[in-house]
Amino acid sequence: MSGFALTRRRALKTGGALAALIAAGFLPRDAFAAWNQAAFETKGIAESLRALGLAQPAASDQVQLVMSDVAENGAVVPVQIVSRAPNTTKIGLMVERNPNTLSAVFDIGAGMLPEIATRVRLQESSNVVAFVVADGKVLTATRLVSVTLGGCAVSS
Fold it and tell me: How far apart, in whole angstroms, are the C-alpha atoms of residue 114 and residue 85?
């Protein structure tokens, strides 16, 4: 029992020390992902892409958007995006009729497998657009998803 308590105590001390170093500015904040708040507050596909500084998109069979056509619960909709385009550097997800269109953006580093799996909220039935940036081009795949229960709606 005492071995477990010692390990737990050490973990708490280490975690507290790390948090204090970050708060005091001794660890670089560049180690954390950059946040493009303006892009995540956009209200349309074209506006979201502009806020990300991306070119005009083109539909492509090199982008695979894997998700059900019907979401029973809009609050938790599984989605997978797979890029077959060489030199993929970014993968993102937009939901056309959500209050904020841009849902996620993932940077894909060299040597990484260009696919992601996540969950997204859908306020209502909508087009879901996956985009991939590869060799400076923006490639997309779109799927219309019907929602039977609301996801993002604010209840009163």
Answer: 9
